[in-house]
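Hi L.,

As promised, Alpha-mannosidase:
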Amino acid sequence: MKFTQRVSLAAGLLLILVGLYLMLPWKQERKKFQPKEILHQRSEKIFRNVVLQSGKTQKKEQKMCNLVNGGSPHYADISTYDLWAKTKFDTHLSGEWEMPDPTFSRSSVVPRLTVILMPHSHNDPGWQKTVDEYYTDQTKHILNNMVNKLTQYRNMTFIWAETVFFSMWWNELDDAEKMYVRRLVQRGQLEFVSGGWVMPDEAITHYGAVVDQLVEGHQWLWTNLGVRPENAWSIDPFGLSGTMPYLWRHSGMQHMVIQRVHQAVKASLSKQGALEFYWRQAWDNSYSNRSDYNGRERALLEFTDEKQVIGVDSVMAVDTTSDFDKNEHLNSIAAGGSASSDILCHIMPFMLYSIMYSCGPNPHICQRFDFGPTQSKNYEEKELAKDITVKSVARDAELLVSQFRAKASFFQFNVILVPIGDDFRYDKEVEWDRQYANYEKLMHYMNDRQDWNLDVRWGTLKDYFSLIDSEINKQDHVKHPVLSGDFFPYSDQNRAYWSGYFSTRPFDKHFCRDLQALLHAADSLNTLSYAYYMKWGLRKEAESRFFQFSAMLQQTRRLLALAQHHDAITGTSKDFVVEDYEKNLLTAYNQGQNVVRHIIQALLTKGKVESPIVFFPAHLRSSAFDIVRRQVIQIPSTGRGTVVTFYNPLGQFRSEVVSLLVDHSAVQVLSSQGKETLPSQISPVWVNASQRVFVEENVFEISFELNILPFSLVTVVLSKLPENILEDAKLHFARISVYNEAILIIPPNLPFMQAPLHPDWREDILVSNGLIELAIDPRTGSLLRLTHLKSGHTTRLRSSFQYYTSRGSGAYIFSPAGKASPLFPVNQKKFEKNFLRPLYSVIPTIRVSEGEIVTFIDISYHSIVFQRITIYSQPSHVASAIFIENVLNIQMLIDKEIVFRFDTDLKNHDLSYFTDQNGFQFIRRRTLHHLPIAANYYPMTSGVILEDAKTRLTLLSAQSHGCASLQKGQLEVMLDRQLVNDDFRGLDEGVRDIKTTVSHFVLFTEAIVGRQKMHSSFMPLSASLSLPALALQDSLHHPILIYFSSVDSDAFFHSLTPVPPPALPCDVAAVSMRSLVTESFGYNGTTLILHRRGYDCSPQTPWVELELVCVPSNPDLTMKDIFGDFAISQIHEMTLTSTKAKQSINPQDKLALKPMELSTFHFYF
């Protein structure tokens, strides 16, 4: 072919391609969907400005997408995702998991072995006793003895973890006693490890609450003792999260010790020489030796025969093949460099942290060297190990050395840690004396035996890891492996899986999250209150109010921190201890509410009307054992009406529909100045009585859309409408439909539109907001499918309530007798043919209240479950989601565990899915059918993602649960557990204190667009939410606070906007905006913790054009952008807990927030 012909052909092909490109639907201008005309009467100028800002930053968003989605994949030596698939779960006849036999050197020269003996006492702030009972009965005596005995025995050491107990004891000391304690710290005899307020659970705690208790503990230690913890100690939480190592590392800790890892997984790690490893975040690609890394990346690409391997979030690729040896194609990435999130982790190799399991692999021998009391319940009955004598020392030392050597064979270096302690040990002086005296005899004998080549000494974690670090520097050829992932679920023995506590006592889990959201809001309000008072020139008043509010918030914070303890939020304490926690939570909740009430009134009036307090919360907790109750707001017949104030605790603009209970049906919503009437909707409040459906005559639900800026207060006025203008007002009444009931009673004076009754309806109930359509089964109440109307894309959902029958389940252990059964079977006759008896045969009552702004579907099943499904008409990202509330009481379901299940048409590869870790990140899970159901349950703190090649389904949660995907396309969440029996893990009782509980979910489906196909052998270990899903999650976790007042005063008819838009980008969360205090509650600067969250750009909703009302990403963000015209100074970037400065910055400096990372800044107003 001639050159000119080739040019002509190429030009022709180019024109064809350009034409096809221009014809693609995603390039065509899409007409924006307008679901309801009434919802587009947005008059706030600021809203239009924010939407415009969003439009200007699409290029920045794409840049962030490329950064997140196209970053280099990150590899570690060990992925826990693979580890579980390849671990052998074999047990001995005793029920204990098999561990490999220790190996010994055959060299004639015995290698030098260093042994660190480390006394410790694990003090639970609540379990079998309340925190106060433990302190009075045992902990205060332990700490008193510690000072006396460490002063007496100058070479003995001790470590302490629980700051809550130490602070209680410290408050009882005089100055001279405090001096002795400081001296012990200075001499290195006493080390504080972890240093949080408590040792938190790691499965179901939210990272925001964990950070807050960590800051509280570290600030206390720094203020009172000048101590910054260097090593983490997490020996009792029932499984270990991959998020916590990141938090410890960025709080200044370099090393960590963990214990409760599945014993079979420990065995698998032991075989790889990996009981000590560098724990790295799966998304962390900051590995310092880039040339070495790139070589390994090329090796991987050659191995996978792919041009490119791209994860979702700069993810770690995990090997899903059956051969462990494939990683031999990749050298250890620990060689020559490390990533910023790396922390050296030591796993205790044996079953427990007691002395019986700490000296070596033989517990019968180790028990002989516990010179304190044994594990009998009554102290007087406890037998003591025999003292070491001159005659016995040789024999005893030889026995103990054999265990030391055996333990050392599990580790790479000839240095071992031997903890000497257990729960609440050293509360008697005799134990201190006997442990010290006997180990001193053994120590001297061992060290004097030159042929044994031993160095046995007292020490702390710092001493142990100093030796390990020294060995790492000396032995370049020996490298610790790098691990990414987590360790859930945990099993100690007898194939018993500790996955039950993920869902035990959900009332308390929900209570903790409610309080966490309230404290988060109260902290930011307290900070803004101080800043505004200073700006208004009211320094004296600022200091006075800060003193008052900070003292109240400290109590709230410390009680919430206490609830993060691994026997509190987990629900694994005795009934009366749980009740004590709940009473503490109520005290904290009411205290937080009072702070917010005071500050809102003070800010709205610019400090002019501080008392009496006339604002009241729209949501109340009347007791420690009841769910939140919504207040009915009284609308006066005279005056301007009732003032309702809203606070947005987020750093982003919000446009949401809010709903309130009012005592009148003809109510209008006015802007704060009364110049504008907002469109609103009145929906009925239902009453069930004698199988008939009543509509309340004096209580109604009013809903309207609210636009509110970051960290802002917005006020509206609710007033009664004159009857003669009712039809002309922007007030709309819901249309009512009732299914499976023959009678509906509506008071005649109410103008609700009523559809014909459907007592025996068979067709699907279809409900739409113009954007999506839901189909509901009228016979079961099941949510059948979700259709996006613009595209016709449909996802099958088929929701149901199921139950497991317990076979030995307890507060900790999940042990079902078999597969789950329907709680309300669809076909009772078919159910009974399978020789199963349904617990309940209930056709639910379904009530639909459909309106211009919101549609409620209320479904009642017997007296056990009430479900509300809500869809909104605006804004678009909210209108594309389904909001689900379940109210549950299973008091009558004896020994049953209730789950909420979806059977979808998604085809998730390899039965894999993603659950979140502590609300911080998502990690891939996989169902392994050779393991029991309980082994395939995982903690879900805030969300779960199920996806295939085309569709992603995201289920967001307002509280923690256990969850699983046991079949392809299936997703289930455990809601509550009622258990008769004890599971023999220390409680000696079941879980019978059942309360009415509430669970909140948001379900969201998206199309997966533009994601490159992964090699089948390598799947991303982590995932991220899309930007719309992030916005939904933020709204779920940090609801708008609502307070009202019936006082008719011009002082309250105002709004307050401290931050000019844009404040924070969509991907940046203000984890905390908390002001620190001095010992006397003086202002000590403000700490701002920001989290730049990764987000996934491949899940999209092309079925509807979503409105972004925040800047997707802003790499140029400064402190000036965040705080506007507030004067701030002395700005420093800090460690996570604000105990050490990293660098000084100016208000105009770019913050340079890294994806996925937490950044802490300290400054002064």
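The radius of gyration is 31 Å.

Thanks again for sending the construct details.

K.
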